[in-house]
Amino acid sequence: MSQNAPQRLYLMQVGSMPEYQIPIVCYLVQTGDGKNILIDSGLPEILPEGEAEFENGQDVIEQLARLGLKPDDIDTVISTHYDGDHAGRHAAFTKAQYVVQRAHHVDAASNPRFADIRSQWDQPMERIRLVDGDTELLPGLELIETSGHVPGHQSVLLRLPKTGAILLTIDAVPFGEGFTRDAQDDGNNPDAEAIRASTIKLLDLVEREHIGLVIFGHDAAQWDTLKKVPAFYA
Ligand SMILES: [Zn+2]
Question: Could you confirm whether domain 6-225 is CATH 3.60.15.10?
Fold first, then answer.
């Protein structure tokens, strides 16, 4: 296995939607050569008006501190998309390079959906790496383009020495019950077609790559069963 391959995956819950008990989460990957790769950053410190359904918990900075890490120790922030519960603390990571799908970054520039936390994700371009479609970030860590939830959403596939392949679907498949080939078009979602295509893309990936663990984006029942910081997958 390559020296810079992922060695550990940490799961952190940084908030919730209390009404539905839905966890708001982010992830940390540590590599064999000592790099810290954060996947998403959770809710903003101060929730924008109109985001009353969210509630902050122990935020990403506090969770990282439990592992002895400071924000400046983060080398890379993989940004799955710029929704407020995924990119809310991006600006705290002043030494990191952000990795995001070009299609998403371009869409976000003029999409009011992402305006509330623009100060978090709209960083100097020399610190943003735009990628186009499926991209191997390093050996054992791949970004999988899964548009639908938003244009240019990305999921993450990683391989760990003991656990093997793990898929983080993020919001392409927020709940395990939706991870099926059956159409779930409710008839009034304009993005239903893309969501379905991305779901099938991930189902195919799970078969092809023999993925043993699929972690869904906001699945409370599954989340209860998973290891959380300070425990980790190796
Ligand atoms: Zn989400």
Answer: yes
